[in-house]
TrEMBL record:
Domain O-methyltransferase C-terminal residue range list: 147-343
Keywords, comma-separated and alphabetical: Melatonin biosynthesis, Methyltransferase, S-adenosyl-L-methionine, Transferase
Ranges of residues in domain O-methyltransferase dimerisation: 22-108
Pfam assignment, any one: Dimerisation
Enzyme Commission number(s) of this protein: 2.1.1.4
Species this chain originates from: Oryza barthii
Active site: H266 (proton acceptor)
GO biological process, one term: methylation
Assigned GO CC terms: cytoplasm
Name by which UniProt lists this protein: acetylserotonin O-methyltransferase
Function: Methyltransferase which catalyzes the transfer of a methyl group onto N-acetylserotonin, producing melatonin (N-acetyl-5-methoxytryptamine).
Catalytic reaction(s) noted: N-acetylserotonin + S-adenosyl-L-methionine = melatonin + S-adenosyl-L-homocysteine + H(+)
UniProt entry tagged with the keyword Lipoprotein: no
InterPro entries named in the record: COMT-like (IPR016461), COMT_C (IPR001077), COMT_dimerisation (IPR012967), SAM-dependent_MTases_sf (IPR029063), WH-like_DNA-bd_sf (IPR036388), WH_DNA-bd_sf (IPR036390)
Amino acid sequence: MAQNEQVMSTEDLLQAQIELYHHCLAFIKSMALRAATDLRIPDAIHCNGGAATLSDLAAHVGLHPTKLSHLRRLMRVLTLSGIFTVVHGRDGEATYTLTRVSRLLLSDGVERTHGLSQMVRVFVNPVAVASQFSIHEWLTVEQAAAMSLFEVAHGCTRWEMIANDSKDGGVFNAGMVEDSSVAMDIILRKSSNVFRGINSLVDVGGGYGAVAAAVVRAFPDIKCTVLDLPHIVANAPSNNNIQFVGGDLFEFIPAADVVLLKFILHCWQHDDCVKIMRRCKEAISARDAGGKVILIEVVVGIGSNETVPKEMQLLFDVFMMYTDGIEREEHEWKKIFLEAGFSDYKIIPVLGVRSIIEVYP
């Protein structure tokens, strides 16, 4: 042993092993959350008057008779991680209730304000998770380095799989609708002034129009257009207040006072983001006429100072490597804006881990 090597005490060795194994098993929380979502355990609790025993849950989810003890083990992890709460009666029987997190997992068929169950399926997705196992190859092998992490693992891009697999694409697009609905509710409650005084808006990469629909409900006089790939807008629900346009954001963006991009630029590397922002600049009015670009994106290091949001920004950044995407710090965003010909910007941290960025020509 080298003389300068520090020898850990017995207690340090024990704690180091515990911490290491805890990190290794952290993915189990995500798997348990996905299982609870697929089993519709939040619905079972809700439909049972807001509180349910293990037997109540078993009956509602159609549990196999031999798996009751295993369901208890799953619920033990989910209560410890704050997805559900549990109270033990005098007889020792556990009764489970919803938390603010699990209320977001209620299905369409039950009374709810917002749902994010499909977003759980977007994040905790076998194809996304499998991609992460290729990080070593992606970082070290020349052929792999030229592709996205997803391509290394699956032989196609994430977007190609979404386009060609209707089930996978359906889950992804439904998740984006859910996320947009929650984000826009928060934005319109806390920063609706970003939409005041404008006559027209185009949502680039707007999918099925959830963001545009929220804007139109709050500001009926704003003319809203959604631009996305033809195969996506072809499946968008009809809305008389929204015009859907099929096209490529690298080629053309319809003219409007405001161009909005929600979680679009984090999918692309620097040079592509500059190209997209230049197209946005071509589409909008001059600043003195109210023209601007609105981005809804992560700005790493800006937002809540609490541990969970700060960690989530960094976890999200590594997650986005699977599409060769990136979550950026402010100086990285500024470089994109200036290279694209914009003169100024403003960051409004209203969404915890995400921010509104107003970019001005």
